[in-house]
C-alpha cells in the first residue's frame, strides 16, 4: 500500500520546491498520489499532458503543475516550470525510510575492531563490517549486509538489506545500494592452458562515484588489474551485470537486465534500455541511447539512438520471416541478377 | 542426489490422488523417479507419450499413468486421468523440506518487539523481522532472510534463505520465495533537471497474491505511488525483473530472465518464455503467450502466441543475413521497381 | 584501487612459473599491473600483440613475455611460452583474499551440532551451517552465507558473502561461489489442472564438479527428480540462470546473463557468450560456441560458432529494416514471381 506519512502544509511545500502557491498555505497534506487516486489529504502532480484529462476531476487537496495548466486546476495548486522535478523533490519528503533509521550498532551486528565509523552511522542486525572498512557520516548498513575489508563508504550512503560490498571497494557519497546487489565480486577472467582453465585473480577494485544508485540483485565486478569505474550520478536498475574494468560516464542510466562485457567504456549522459547487451572492449561516446534488448558489438562514435532486433509479431507470421531471414543473402543475389537481366 | 524420504504405501497414495490402484496396496515406496531410473522401492509416472518406450522395461515398484496405458505397464499401477498432476501432488508428499522446519524463533534470529507472529511460525538463524511486521500461521523465514517494517506474510508462506522482503510489502498465503529474491526494492524512477538526476522516492508497495512463487535472485520492485501487483497463483522463475507498478494477472507464468518495464499490465493465464522483455506502459490481454527472448514494444489485444528475433544459425551464414538485414529497405524498393518495370 | 601485496623476488617468480629470467633475480616486486600503468615495483605482462606498442615505454620492474619479444623489452624479463597463463598463475600469488582467512568458527556464526567440518575450515560471522552439512578441509564460508542441510562442500572450496547453498547439494573441491549466488533453489515445475498451477516439489539436487566457479547473483536450480549437473572446471559468470536438470560438460564457460532452460545438455569445452539463451530439452555437442545474445531453439550436433539476431544500427534505419522483416515472406514470393516471369 502507499505509505502514509507526516503532514506538510502547502506553504512549506511551496517554499521547499520554490513553487508559486495558489490556494490556502495552511492546508496540510499527508502524502502523494496520482490525479486519479489522490484524496483531499494528498497532493497530486501533472507532468505529462497524457494525464491532463484527469485534472478536472481530481479530488486532490493540491496539484503540482506548470503555470500553463493552472487555470484548469479545480484544487489548490503549486505552479513550477518542471512539475516532474517538483514531484521528485516532494516524494523525498514523504519517504518513510529515513525516519526508521536507528543510529548506532545493533547488538546482533558484527563490526571489526579496526573498522572506522563516522558519526550517525546505523548498522542493522546481522550486518557485518570487516576489518579496515571505513564508513562515512550517517552511513546506513541494512540487515544482513556485508562491507568487505578495507572498503570505504562515503557520507550518507545507504545499503539496504543483504547487500554485499567486497573488499577494497570505494563507494562515494549519497550512494544507494538496493537489496541483494553485489559490488566487487570477481571479474570473469581465466587463462586456458590447452586442457582447462586457470583463474586470473581479480586484483582491481570497484569505484562508485557520488550519487550512484544500484538496483536489486545487480552485480558490478571488480577489475582484473585496474578498477571498474562507475561515474557520478550514474543510475543502475535491477538485474544489471557490469563486468570487470568497465567504465560508465557521469549521469548515465542503465535500465533493468542490461549486461556490459569487460573493459567497455560508456560515455556520459548515455541511456541503455532494458536488456541491452554491450560486447567487451567497446567505446560508446557521450549521449548514446540504445533501445531495449539491442546488442551492440561495435563502438559507437556518434551520439544518437541505436537499435537491433526485430519487433514482436504473431508467431505463425514470425516463423515465415525467420525462415526468410536465413535466405536473405540468396534473395539479395537473386535480386541483383534480375536487375542485371533487366538492363 | 535425489532425496530419499519416508515410505508410503500404494493404498495411501491411491487414496491421496484419488487414483485407481491395480496391484498390492501394501507395497511401500520411498521416493519418485523417472521410468528409466526408478527402482523397486520407487514410484514412476508416465505423463508424456515420448516416454512410453521406457514403460515396458521400468523397474519401478509402481507407475502413475492414464488408464489407456494400463495394459502396457509391467508393474503395479495407479491410474488417473491427469498423471502429470498426480505426479505433482505426489511429489509434495516426498518433499523433505517441510519435515526440517523447527517451529519457534532461533536464538540467533532478530525479531522486533512490535512484530506479530502467528502460531507455528519458524524463524531461522540470522533472520531479521523488522518492527511492525506481521507473520501469519506456520510462516517459515529461512536463514539470513529479512522481513521489512510493517510487511505482512500470509499463512503458510515460506521464505527460503537470504530472501529480502522490503517494508510495507503484502504477501499472500502459501507464497514461496526462493533464496536471494528481493521483493520491494525501489523502482527505477528519477527526474532530470537538465544537468543530472533526482531520485523519485518509491512510496508504493508490492502486493503478492496467494499461491505466488518467486524464483531465486528475482526482483519485484515497489511502486512509485500505487503498488506493484502480482495476482493469485502467478509463478515467477529465477532471475526475473519486474519493475514498479507492473500488474500481473492471476495464474500467469513467467520463465527465467524475463524483464518487465514499469507500469505494464499482463493479463491472466499469460505465459512469458525465458528472457522475454516487455516495454513499459503496455497492456497484454489474457491468454497471451510470448516465446523465448522476444521483445514486445506494443500492447497485445488478441490472445495467441507472439515472437520476435531470428533463429540461431552458423555464424558465417548469419553474418551474411545480418548484413542484408541492414539493406532490407533498399532491397524492398528495388523489388518494387522491378515489378513496375515488368508491367 | 589495485591491491598492493607482499614482495616477491624475480627469482622466486621465475621458479614458480618455470620461466627464463633475464635480469637480477633479487629484484623484488609487490604487485601486477599493465605495461602502461606498472611502476618499478610492479611486474607487467605482454600476452597480446595489441599491447606491443606499450612495451618499449614501460616503467615496469619486470615483464612476463614470449621469448620472441624478449629483445624489445627495456626491463628485466621472464620469458615463457604462454605469458597469459603465466599472468594467471602469478596473479594468484598476489591475491590478498586468502591471506585474510581466519580458520575457525566466528562466534556470530551458527553451526549445527550435526554438521561435520574438516580441518582449517573458516566460517565467518552470521554464516549458517545447517544440520548434516559436511565441509571439507580449508573450506571458507563467507559472512551471511548459508550451507543447507546435508550438503557437501569439497576441500578448499570458497563461498564468498551472502551465498546460498540449498539442502542436499554436492559441491566439489576448489569451487568458488561468488557473493549472492544461489545453488539449489527449486526448479520451475508446475502441473496445470485446467484452472491453475500445482507445484511439483523439486526432489533432485545440484552437483558441481571440482574447480567450478559461479559468478555473483547467478542461480543454479535443483533437479525435479535427478540432479542438475555442472561438470569439472566449468566457469559460470554473473547473473546466469541454469534451470533444473541441465547438464554442462567439463571445461565449458558461460558468460554473464546466460539463461539455460530445463533439461538441456551442453557439451564439453563449449563457450556461451553473454546473454545467450538455450531452450529446454536441447543437446549441444562438445566444442560449440554461441555468440552474445543468441537464442538457440534447436539442438546443435556440429562443433562451431553459432549466432542469431541482428547487429545494432541507427534507430531510424533500424525501424525501416524491422518493418521490412515482417514483409520478408511476401518479398520472397514476389521475387520468385519475377524470376518466373523473366524465364
TrEMBL record, chains A, B, C:
Residues 28-93 form the UDP-3-O-[3-hydroxymyristoyl] glucosamine N-acyltransferase non-repeat region domain. InterPro entries: Hexapep, Hexapep_transf_CS, LpxD, Trimer_LpxA-like_sf, UDP_GlcNAc_AcTrfase_non-rep. It comes from the Bacteria. Its EC number is 2.3.1.191. Keywords: Acyltransferase, Lipid A biosynthesis, Lipid biosynthesis, Lipid metabolism, Repeat, Transferase. Gene3D superfamilies: 1.20.5.170, Hexapeptide repeat proteins, MurE/MurF, N-terminal domain. The active site is at 244 (proton acceptor). It catalyses: a UDP-3-O-[(3R)-3-hydroxyacyl]-alpha-D-glucosamine + a (3R)-hydroxyacyl-[ACP] = a UDP-2-N,3-O-bis[(3R)-3-hydroxyacyl]-alpha-D-glucosamine + holo-[ACP] + H(+). SUPFAM superfamilies: Trimeric LpxA-like enzymes. Catalyzes the N-acylation of UDP-3-O-acylglucosamine using 3-hydroxyacyl-ACP as the acyl donor. Is involved in the biosynthesis of lipid A, a phosphorylated glycolipid that anchors the lipopolysaccharide to the outer membrane of the cell. This is UDP-3-O-acylglucosamine N-acyltransferase. It comes from Halomonas cibimaris.
Amino acid at each position: 500500500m502507499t505509505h502514509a506519512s507526516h503532514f506538510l502544509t502547502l506553504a512549506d511545500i511551496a517554499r521547499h520546491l520554490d513553487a508559486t502557491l495558489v490556494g490556502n498555505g495552511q492546508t496540510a497534506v499527508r502524502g502523494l498520489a496520482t490525479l486519479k487516486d489522490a484524496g483531499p489529504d494528498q497532493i497530486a502532480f501533472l507532468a505529462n499532458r497524457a494525464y491532463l484529462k484527469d485534472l478536472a476531476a481530481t479530488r486532490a487537496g493540491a496539484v503540482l503543475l506548470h503555470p500553463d495548466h493552472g487555470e484548469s486546476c479545480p484544487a489548490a495548486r503549486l505552479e513550477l516550470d518542471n512539475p516532474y522535478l517538483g514531484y521528485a523533490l516532494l516524494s523525498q519528503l514523504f519517504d518513510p525510510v529515513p525516519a526508521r533509521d536507528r543510529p548506532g550498532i545493533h547488538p546482533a551486528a558484527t563490526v571489526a575492531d579496526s573498522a572506522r565509523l563516522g558519526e550517525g552511522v546505523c548498522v542493522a542486525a546481522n550486518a557485518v563490517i570487516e576489518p579496515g572498512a571505513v564508513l562515512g557520516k550517517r552511513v546506513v548498513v541494512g540487515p544482513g549486509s556485508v562491507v568487505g575489508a578495507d572498503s570505504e563508504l562515503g557520507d550518507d550512503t545507504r545499503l539496504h538489506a543483504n547487500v554485499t560490498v567486497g573488499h577494497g571497494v570505494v563507494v562515494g557519497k549519497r550512494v544507494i545500494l538496493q537489496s541483494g546487489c553485489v559490488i566487487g565480486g570477481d571479474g570473469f577472467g581465466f587463462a586456458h592452458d590447452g586442457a582447462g582453465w586457470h583463474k586470473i585473480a581479480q586484483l582491481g577494485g570497484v569505484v562508485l562515484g557520488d550519487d550512484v544508485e544500484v538496483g536489486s540483485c545487480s552485480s558490478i565486478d571488480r577489475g582484473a588489474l585496474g578498477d571498474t569505474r562507475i561515474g557520478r550520478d550514474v543510475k543502475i536498475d535491477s538485474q544489471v551485470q557490469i563486468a570487470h574494468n568497465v567504465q560508465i560516464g557521469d549521469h548515465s542510466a542503465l535500465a533493468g537486465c542490461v549486461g556490459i562485457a569487460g573493459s567497455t567504456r560508456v560515455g556520459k549522459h548515455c541511456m541503455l534500455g532494458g536488456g541491452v547487451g554491450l560486447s567487451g572492449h567497446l567505446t560508446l561516446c557521450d549521449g548514446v541511447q540504445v533501445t531495449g534488448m539491442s546488442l551492440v558489438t561495435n563502438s559507437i562514435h556518434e551520439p544518437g539512438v541505436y537499435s537491433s532486433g526485430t519487433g514482436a509479431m504473431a508467431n505463425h507470421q514470425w516463423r515465415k520471416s525467420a525462415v526468410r531471414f536465413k535466405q536473405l543473402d540468396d534473395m539479395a543475389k537473386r535480386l541483383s541478377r534480375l536487375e542485371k537481366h533487366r538492363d
